[in-house]
Protein backbone atom coordinates (compact mmCIF):
# COMPACT_ATOMS: atom_id res chain seq x y z
CA UNK A 1 0.00 0.00 0.00
CA UNK A 2 1.27 3.46 -0.81
CA UNK A 3 2.01 5.29 2.47
CA UNK A 4 1.08 8.88 3.24
CA UNK A 5 3.74 11.48 2.45
CA UNK A 6 5.40 14.07 4.70
CA UNK A 7 7.66 16.83 3.40
CA UNK A 8 10.56 18.24 5.38
CA UNK A 9 11.94 21.63 4.40
CA UNK A 10 15.18 21.68 6.38
CA UNK A 11 18.96 21.49 6.50
CA UNK A 12 21.31 18.54 6.42
CA UNK A 13 23.26 17.49 9.53
CA UNK A 14 26.47 15.71 8.49
CA UNK A 15 26.41 14.00 11.91
CA UNK A 16 23.08 12.39 11.03
CA UNK A 17 21.29 13.17 14.31
CA UNK A 18 19.27 16.31 13.53
CA UNK A 19 17.93 18.12 10.44
CA UNK A 20 16.62 16.15 7.49
CA UNK A 21 18.37 13.03 8.69
CA UNK A 22 16.36 13.06 11.94
CA UNK A 23 13.20 13.90 9.99
CA UNK A 24 13.61 11.06 7.51
CA UNK A 25 14.34 8.44 10.11
CA UNK A 26 11.35 9.65 12.13
CA UNK A 27 9.09 9.60 9.07
CA UNK A 28 10.24 6.05 8.33
CA UNK A 29 9.71 4.99 11.95
CA UNK A 30 6.17 6.39 11.78
CA UNK A 31 5.26 4.75 8.50
CA UNK A 32 5.15 7.73 6.16
CA UNK A 33 7.13 8.37 2.99
CA UNK A 34 9.54 11.28 3.51
CA UNK A 35 9.98 14.00 0.89
CA UNK A 36 12.79 16.57 1.13
CA UNK A 37 13.42 20.18 0.20
CA UNK A 38 17.00 20.78 1.34
CA UNK A 39 17.70 24.35 2.52
CA UNK A 40 21.31 24.19 3.69
CA UNK A 41 24.26 21.90 4.12
CA UNK A 42 25.75 22.13 7.62
CA UNK A 43 29.18 20.91 8.59
CA UNK A 44 28.60 19.51 12.06
CA UNK A 45 29.35 16.69 14.43
CA UNK A 46 28.61 15.89 18.06
CA UNK A 47 30.69 18.87 19.17
CA UNK A 48 28.79 21.51 17.20
CA UNK A 49 28.27 23.25 13.89
CA UNK A 50 31.41 24.37 12.06
CA UNK A 51 29.52 26.25 9.37
CA UNK A 52 26.84 26.01 6.73
CA UNK A 53 26.12 26.88 3.13
CA UNK A 54 22.59 27.64 2.06
CA UNK A 55 20.93 26.26 -1.06
CA UNK A 56 19.70 28.96 -3.49
CA UNK A 57 16.08 29.90 -2.64
CA UNK A 58 14.86 29.01 -6.13
CA UNK A 59 16.32 25.49 -5.78
CA UNK A 60 14.59 25.04 -2.40
CA UNK A 61 11.27 26.02 -3.96
CA UNK A 62 11.84 23.91 -7.08
CA UNK A 63 12.26 20.86 -4.81
CA UNK A 64 8.95 21.63 -3.07
CA UNK A 65 7.11 22.12 -6.36
CA UNK A 66 8.63 18.99 -7.93
CA UNK A 67 7.45 16.64 -5.21
CA UNK A 68 4.14 18.39 -4.52
CA UNK A 69 3.07 18.38 -8.17
CA UNK A 70 3.95 14.74 -8.75
CA UNK A 71 3.73 12.84 -5.46
CA UNK A 72 1.45 14.98 -3.32
CA UNK A 73 2.13 16.25 0.19
CA UNK A 74 -0.08 15.07 3.08
CA UNK A 75 1.72 17.22 5.69
CA UNK A 76 4.88 19.33 5.85
CA UNK A 77 7.32 20.66 8.42
CA UNK A 78 10.01 23.30 8.35
CA UNK A 79 13.27 23.09 10.29
CA UNK A 80 16.48 25.00 9.59
CA UNK A 81 15.63 27.58 6.91
CA UNK A 82 18.94 29.49 6.95
CA UNK A 83 17.99 32.84 5.39
CA UNK A 84 15.13 35.33 5.19
CA UNK A 85 15.16 34.95 1.41
CA UNK A 86 14.56 31.19 1.66
CA UNK A 87 11.80 31.78 4.22
CA UNK A 88 10.00 34.34 2.04
CA UNK A 89 10.31 32.10 -1.04
CA UNK A 90 9.02 29.04 0.83
CA UNK A 91 6.00 31.02 2.06
CA UNK A 92 5.25 32.17 -1.49
CA UNK A 93 5.60 28.64 -2.86
CA UNK A 94 3.31 27.21 -0.18
CA UNK A 95 0.71 29.82 -1.14
CA UNK A 96 1.07 28.95 -4.82
CA UNK A 97 0.41 25.30 -3.92
CA UNK A 98 -2.75 26.33 -2.09
CA UNK A 99 -1.37 25.03 1.25
CA UNK A 100 -4.09 22.40 1.56
CA UNK A 101 -2.08 20.28 4.00
CA UNK A 102 -1.08 20.75 7.68
CA UNK A 103 2.16 22.72 8.19
CA UNK A 104 4.35 22.37 11.29
CA UNK A 105 6.86 25.19 11.75
CA UNK A 106 9.78 24.44 14.08
CA UNK A 107 11.46 27.87 14.36
CA UNK A 108 15.01 26.50 14.53
CA UNK A 109 17.33 29.41 15.34
CA UNK A 110 20.42 27.68 16.71
CA UNK A 111 21.82 24.23 17.41
CA UNK A 112 21.70 22.95 20.98
CA UNK A 113 25.44 23.67 21.07
CA UNK A 114 24.61 27.36 20.57
CA UNK A 115 25.65 27.78 16.93
CA UNK A 116 23.42 29.99 14.77
CA UNK A 117 21.48 28.15 12.05
CA UNK A 118 19.79 31.30 10.77
CA UNK A 119 21.36 34.37 9.23
CA UNK A 120 20.54 37.67 10.95
CA UNK A 121 16.89 38.82 10.92
CA UNK A 122 15.65 35.47 9.59
CA UNK A 123 13.79 34.55 12.80
CA UNK A 124 11.68 37.67 12.26
CA UNK A 125 10.88 36.39 8.74
CA UNK A 126 9.79 33.02 10.17
CA UNK A 127 7.48 34.88 12.54
CA UNK A 128 5.88 37.10 9.91
CA UNK A 129 5.95 34.79 6.86
CA UNK A 130 5.44 31.30 8.27
CA UNK A 131 3.66 31.48 11.63
CA UNK A 132 0.42 32.82 10.08
CA UNK A 133 0.46 29.88 7.63
CA UNK A 134 1.23 27.26 10.30
CA UNK A 135 -1.10 24.66 11.75
CA UNK A 136 1.34 24.28 14.66
CA UNK A 137 4.55 25.99 15.77
CA UNK A 138 6.98 24.19 18.10
CA UNK A 139 9.47 26.63 19.69
CA UNK A 140 11.87 25.63 22.46
CA UNK A 141 12.43 27.95 25.40
CA UNK A 142 15.32 29.89 23.81
CA UNK A 143 13.22 30.49 20.69
CA UNK A 144 10.25 31.53 22.87
CA UNK A 145 12.43 34.15 24.55
CA UNK A 146 13.80 35.45 21.25
CA UNK A 147 10.31 35.65 19.74
CA UNK A 148 8.30 37.03 22.68
CA UNK A 149 10.73 38.18 25.36
CA UNK A 150 9.02 35.78 27.81
CA UNK A 151 11.35 33.67 29.97
CA UNK A 152 9.56 30.44 30.73
CA UNK A 153 10.36 29.25 34.24
CA UNK A 154 7.10 27.64 35.41
CA UNK A 155 3.64 26.59 34.15
CA UNK A 156 2.26 30.15 34.46
CA UNK A 157 4.97 31.72 32.28
CA UNK A 158 4.67 28.79 29.82
CA UNK A 159 1.01 29.73 29.41
CA UNK A 160 1.85 33.43 29.04
CA UNK A 161 4.34 32.46 26.32
CA UNK A 162 1.76 30.31 24.52
CA UNK A 163 -0.70 33.22 24.44
CA UNK A 164 1.97 35.63 23.15
CA UNK A 165 3.05 33.19 20.42
CA UNK A 166 -0.53 32.61 19.24
CA UNK A 167 -0.77 36.35 18.55
CA UNK A 168 1.61 35.71 15.63
CA UNK A 169 -1.13 33.80 13.83
CA UNK A 170 -0.54 30.02 14.00
CA UNK A 171 -3.52 27.83 14.79
CA UNK A 172 -1.74 25.92 17.58
CA UNK A 173 1.45 26.37 19.57
CA UNK A 174 3.50 23.79 21.44
CA UNK A 175 5.81 25.42 23.99
CA UNK A 176 8.41 22.68 24.54
CA UNK A 177 9.66 22.35 28.10
CA UNK A 178 12.76 20.22 27.55
CA UNK A 179 15.02 23.03 28.76
CA UNK A 180 12.95 24.05 31.78
CA UNK A 181 15.05 23.77 34.92
CA UNK A 182 13.91 22.76 38.36
CA UNK A 183 11.20 20.37 37.16
CA UNK A 184 11.30 16.64 37.63
CA UNK A 185 9.11 16.03 34.57
CA UNK A 186 9.34 17.33 31.01
CA UNK A 187 6.17 19.32 30.40
CA UNK A 188 5.23 20.63 26.95
CA UNK A 189 2.21 22.97 26.69
CA UNK A 190 -0.12 22.75 23.66
CA UNK A 191 -2.67 25.49 23.06
CA UNK A 192 -4.94 26.98 20.45
CA UNK A 193 -5.94 29.83 22.79
CA UNK A 194 -9.04 27.97 23.99
CA UNK A 195 -7.59 24.70 25.18
CA UNK A 196 -4.38 24.44 27.24
CA UNK A 197 -3.13 20.86 27.26
CA UNK A 198 -0.12 19.97 29.40
CA UNK A 199 1.79 16.98 28.09
CA UNK A 200 3.82 15.61 30.95
CA UNK A 201 6.45 12.89 30.72
CA UNK A 202 9.50 11.69 32.62
CA UNK A 203 12.76 13.63 32.29
CA UNK A 204 15.48 11.14 31.42
CA UNK A 205 18.95 11.81 32.75
CA UNK A 206 20.93 11.92 29.53
CA UNK A 207 23.03 14.50 27.74
CA UNK A 208 22.30 12.83 24.40
CA UNK A 209 19.32 14.81 23.13
CA UNK A 210 20.69 16.02 19.79
CA UNK A 211 17.87 16.12 17.24
CA UNK A 212 15.14 15.97 19.88
CA UNK A 213 13.22 18.98 18.59
CA UNK A 214 13.36 17.79 14.97
CA UNK A 215 12.31 14.28 15.94
CA UNK A 216 9.31 15.54 17.90
CA UNK A 217 8.16 17.91 15.12
CA UNK A 218 8.53 15.26 12.42
CA UNK A 219 6.72 12.60 14.48
CA UNK A 220 3.84 15.08 14.87
CA UNK A 221 3.97 15.84 11.12
CA UNK A 222 3.83 12.11 10.31
CA UNK A 223 0.66 11.73 12.41
CA UNK A 224 -0.89 14.80 10.79
CA UNK A 225 -0.10 13.28 7.37
CA UNK A 226 -2.22 10.29 8.43
CA UNK A 227 -5.14 12.58 9.26
CA UNK A 228 -4.77 12.63 13.05
CA UNK A 229 -6.04 15.72 14.93
CA UNK A 230 -3.45 18.17 16.29
CA UNK A 231 -3.94 17.23 19.99
CA UNK A 232 -3.72 13.50 19.19
CA UNK A 233 -0.72 13.99 16.87
CA UNK A 234 1.13 15.98 19.54
CA UNK A 235 0.31 13.40 22.23
CA UNK A 236 1.62 10.63 19.96
CA UNK A 237 4.70 12.71 19.12
CA UNK A 238 5.45 13.26 22.81
CA UNK A 239 5.25 9.50 23.49
CA UNK A 240 7.52 8.88 20.50
CA UNK A 241 10.20 11.43 21.50
CA UNK A 242 10.17 10.20 25.10
CA UNK A 243 11.14 6.74 23.99
CA UNK A 244 13.72 8.17 21.55
CA UNK A 245 15.32 10.16 24.42
CA UNK A 246 15.25 7.09 26.67
CA UNK A 247 17.07 5.10 23.96
CA UNK A 248 19.49 7.86 22.89
CA UNK A 249 23.14 6.91 22.52
CA UNK A 250 26.65 8.34 22.73
CA UNK A 251 28.36 8.95 19.41
CA UNK A 252 31.43 11.16 19.16
CA UNK A 253 32.98 13.19 21.96
CA UNK A 254 30.02 15.57 22.38
CA UNK A 255 26.24 15.26 22.37
CA UNK A 256 24.79 12.05 20.97
CA UNK A 257 21.46 11.75 19.12
CA UNK A 258 18.01 10.66 20.23
CA UNK A 259 17.15 7.34 18.66
CA UNK A 260 14.12 5.89 16.89
CA UNK A 261 15.83 2.48 16.48
CA UNK A 262 13.54 0.95 19.11
CA UNK A 263 10.73 0.84 16.54
CA UNK A 264 12.64 -1.92 14.73
CA UNK A 265 12.02 -4.22 17.71
CA UNK A 266 8.28 -3.61 17.85
N1 LIG B 1 15.78 14.69 29.15
C1 LIG B 1 14.60 14.53 28.56
N2 LIG B 1 13.80 13.49 28.89
C2 LIG B 1 12.59 13.31 28.31
N3 LIG B 1 12.09 14.13 27.37
C3 LIG B 1 12.84 15.18 26.98
C4 LIG B 1 14.13 15.45 27.54
N4 LIG B 1 14.64 16.56 26.95
C5 LIG B 1 13.72 16.97 26.07
N5 LIG B 1 12.63 16.17 26.09
C6 LIG B 1 11.44 16.28 25.25
O1 LIG B 1 11.91 16.33 23.92
C7 LIG B 1 11.14 17.24 23.14
C8 LIG B 1 12.05 18.32 22.59
O2 LIG B 1 12.13 19.32 23.57
P1 LIG B 1 13.24 20.44 23.71
O3 LIG B 1 12.64 21.48 24.58
O4 LIG B 1 14.50 19.81 24.18
O5 LIG B 1 13.36 20.94 22.21
P2 LIG B 1 14.59 21.47 21.40
O6 LIG B 1 15.43 22.38 22.26
O7 LIG B 1 14.07 22.03 20.14
O8 LIG B 1 15.36 20.16 21.12
P3 LIG B 1 16.92 19.94 20.75
O9 LIG B 1 17.58 21.29 20.72
O10 LIG B 1 17.39 19.03 21.86
O11 LIG B 1 16.88 19.27 19.43
C9 LIG B 1 10.05 17.74 24.09
O12 LIG B 1 8.90 16.92 23.95
C10 LIG B 1 10.65 17.57 25.47
O13 LIG B 1 9.69 17.46 26.48
C1 LIG C 1 20.59 20.86 10.10
C2 LIG C 1 20.17 21.05 11.52
N1 LIG C 1 18.88 21.29 11.80
C3 LIG C 1 18.49 21.46 13.09
C4 LIG C 1 19.39 21.36 14.12
C5 LIG C 1 18.91 21.58 15.54
O1 LIG C 1 19.07 20.43 16.33
P1 LIG C 1 19.72 20.49 17.79
O2 LIG C 1 19.02 21.62 18.52
O3 LIG C 1 19.46 19.18 18.40
O4 LIG C 1 21.19 20.80 17.61
C6 LIG C 1 20.74 21.12 13.81
N2 LIG C 1 21.70 21.03 14.74
N3 LIG C 1 21.10 20.97 12.48
TrEMBL record:
InterPro entries: HMP/HMP-P_kinase_dom (IPR004399), PM/HMP-P_kinase-1 (IPR013749), Ribokinase-like (IPR029056). GO terms for molecular function: ATP binding; hydroxymethylpyrimidine kinase activity; phosphomethylpyrimidine kinase activity. Its EC number is 2.7.1.49, 2.7.4.7. The keyword Nucleotide-binding applies. Pfam families: Phos_pyr_kin (PF08543). Residues 13-258 form the Pyridoxamine kinase/Phosphomethylpyrimidine kinase domain. It comes from the Bacteria. Keywords: ATP-binding, Kinase, Nucleotide-binding, Thiamine biosynthesis, Transferase. One of its GO terms (cellular component) is cytosol. The keyword Kinase applies. Gene3D superfamilies: 3.40.1190.20. GO terms for biological process: thiamine biosynthetic process; thiamine diphosphate biosynthetic process. It catalyses: 4-amino-2-methyl-5-(phosphooxymethyl)pyrimidine + ATP = 4-amino-2-methyl-5-(diphosphooxymethyl)pyrimidine + ADP; 4-amino-5-hydroxymethyl-2-methylpyrimidine + ATP = 4-amino-2-methyl-5-(phosphooxymethyl)pyrimidine + ADP + H(+). Pathway: Cofactor biosynthesis; thiamine diphosphate biosynthesis; 4-amino-2-methyl-5-diphosphomethylpyrimidine from 5-amino-1-(5-phospho-D-ribosyl)imidazole: step 3/3. Catalyzes the phosphorylation of hydroxymethylpyrimidine phosphate (HMP-P) to HMP-PP, and of HMP to HMP-P. This is Bifunctional hydroxymethylpyrimidine kinase/phosphomethylpyrimidine kinase. The gene is thiD.
Amino acid sequence: MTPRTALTIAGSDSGGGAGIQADLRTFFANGVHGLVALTAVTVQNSLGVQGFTEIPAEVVCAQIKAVASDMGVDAAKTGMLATAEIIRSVAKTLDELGLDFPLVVDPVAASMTGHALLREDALEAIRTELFPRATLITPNLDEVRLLTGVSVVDPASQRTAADALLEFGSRWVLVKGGHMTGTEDCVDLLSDGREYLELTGPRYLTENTHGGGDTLASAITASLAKGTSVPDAVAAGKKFIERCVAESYSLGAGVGPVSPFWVLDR
